[in-house]
Amino acid sequence: MEIRPWQESDRPFLRTLYLHARREAWPWLDGSDWQLEDFDAATRNERIYVALENGHRVGFASLDQNGNFLHNLFIDPACQGRGIGSALLEHVHKHFTGTGALKCLARNQRALAFYQRHGWHSEATGDSPDGEYVLMHYRLG
Question: Fewer Cβ close by (within 10 Å): the C or N end of the chain?
């Protein structure tokens, strides 16, 4: 497993991964208007890390500018359950300079359980255009 900063040549694959992984993770949402270019807007001005397994891109994570908000973490649905998400999350933890934060859709029970297993704690809930979310924090050391 290799995790590296993204390169522009990753864009076509990550666009496709982002589109398909969201449809898989959020089946209750109407994804008919989602487009490949949504990746560009969702990661604009963010630090992106790409996970590779045997030289193949299998997932990515993106952090906002200050580095303490995990905005996206998506794994190719065909590659889930192999520790890729855990490796990406551990990599992200190393880049936090303070308490890490993320928002996870409340209906995404699989993701909530994943983050909790990795030391994240629910802090609050809120509403978004995609439904209720849980604000989670990860405290360093």
Answer: C
Residues 63 and 11 sit within 8 Å (Cβ to Cβ): no
DSSP 97: S
DSSP assignment string, 30-83: --TT--TTHHHHHHTT-EEEEEEETTEEEEEEEE-TTS-BEEEEEE-GGGTTSS
Q: Which domains are seen in the chain, by residue range?
A: 2-138 (3.40.630.30)
Distance of CA 63 to the CA centre of its chain: 9
Residue corresponding to tokens 């699989």: 110
| Cβ–Cβ < 8 Å for 100, 137 | yes
Per the listing, tokens 């209720």 go with: 132
Instruction: List 68's β-bridge partners, or say none.
Output: none
pLDDT tens sequence across 94-136: 999 899 999 999 999 999 999 999 999 999 999 999 999 999 9
Nearest-angstrom CA–CA distance, 15 and 120: 27
